[in-house]
Amino acid sequence: MVERTHTDLTIVHELIYELKVDQVMTHNVITVSPECTMQELKEILRTRRISGVPVVVGSKLIGMVSVDNLFRALERGEGSSTVAQHMTRQVVSLRPEETVISAINLFARYSYGRFPVVDGEGNVVGIITKGDIVRGLLKQLEQLWHAKESRRQYTHIFEDIESDETALILRYKVKPRDFVHGGQASGKVKRALERLGAHPQIIRRIAVATYEAEVNIMIHSEGGEIVAEARPERVLVTATDTGPGIPDIEKAMQPGFSTAPDWIRELGFGAGMGLTNIKNCADEMRLTSEVGVGTRLEMVFYLTGAPKGAS
Amino acid sequence: MTLEEIAKLLDAEIISRDVDPTQSVAMACGADLMSDVLTFTHAGTLLLTGLTNPQVIRTADTAGISAIVFVRGKYPPPETIALAEEMNIPLLRSRYTMYECCGRLYKAGLPSCGLFDFSAPCQQGAQTACPTA
Fold this sequence. Notes:
The structure holds 2 protein chains of 2 kinds. The model of chain A has no long low-confidence stretch (mean pLDDT about 90). In chain A, strands 5-6-7-9-8 form a 5-stranded antiparallel sheet, covered by helices on one side. A two-stranded antiparallel sheet of chain A has the order 1-2. Chain A has a two-stranded antiparallel ribbon with strand order 3-4. Chain A folds into 2 domains: about 5-140, CBS-domain; about 155-300, Histidine kinase-like ATPase, C-terminal domain (Heat Shock Protein 90, 2-Layer Sandwich), CATH 3.30.565. Chain A is an alpha+beta fold. Chain A is elongated, with a radius of gyration of 28 Å. Chain A is about 40% helix and about 20% strand. In chain B, about 35% of the residues lie in helices and about 15% in strands. Chain B is built from 5 helices and 5 strands. In chain B, strands 1-5-4-3-2 form a 5-stranded mixed sheet, with helices on one face. In chain B, α4 (about 80-85) links the parallel β4 and β5. Chain B is globular. The model of chain B is unreliable at about 115-133 (pLDDT under 50).
């Protein structure tokens, strides 16, 4: 069993919500008329290697007929009867503009192997199976990969500047317990990286981890700073603070362990998931602390090479 | 689903000024725990929450949340409204509870942003070659 982190799933998740049924469905739909006999249907399913087809009059959908219906008809020796007598009339269909997640939800809800896709007038414009969804996602992932390969925007700014070593350093002060004005550093880091043209997925991971680190400084310390150091190949975010420090780092890293007071919890924080979340987002994480002095958290995010989740 | 439709379903008031009511969201998440919002949401999500402090907006901005509904009739403090306007995140307020807000939107077809199992349980049906492994 491969352990899946949320960063592994994010790209596929976002695709599922972004992609439209129209982009993954099969457009050339094989259909039958209601007058078609079950024997003829058998030949169509066999030669086309499919397990079900929409039943149409003109191009209007009136039902679906599958191998299941066919088997039942043949068992009863009704091979010469028509599709109209055996088809499912209450058809669950999708619209081309619906998202792939709607299709996935339908597959989870019903036992059908395929769903017809119809336009506003009820005309069949496509058909979708789980195989179509997988193929569509793989195609999109491949395109993303190519886009990433050709994406040199982020490194442009660094290539334009000549030096033996170039880095962009962003430094933000973080005040303790200021939940009204605090929390700005991560948003500003996010916008800076957007302007540099880094990949949105990576920006998101950096923003989430930086925000969690910033909130930790606001909750637990006497103040500190967030420094983001952007280089062509990676971003290093360091969160340092002065304060009580962490007596037991291993314990602090446990999901759900928290020392936050109630008023922090009332603000929606302090559930003990911050460091876990940071660990899931960052490619590398180092946490050091001295009791009574302060804490230092380093988070590394690679912009090129193996992304988080690929091993 | 558009903000207009959401406002209608939740009997909600759009708090923010200059909101495009035809702006749409792809999915929704109900949470009062900001770490969960950061972990489990995706860009284009509607957040339903009972919290009204400005960090909700910071969290939403970080996570790429498209719009926020405050449940149980809670009215956010001015600093929250101001920050949301700065971040361009529309705010709505519904008198219904979290449970009812989520239920109304889910029933109307707005999907969840949570994790789901991609391999739906195989049921007997037309799909003959269904591996059980």
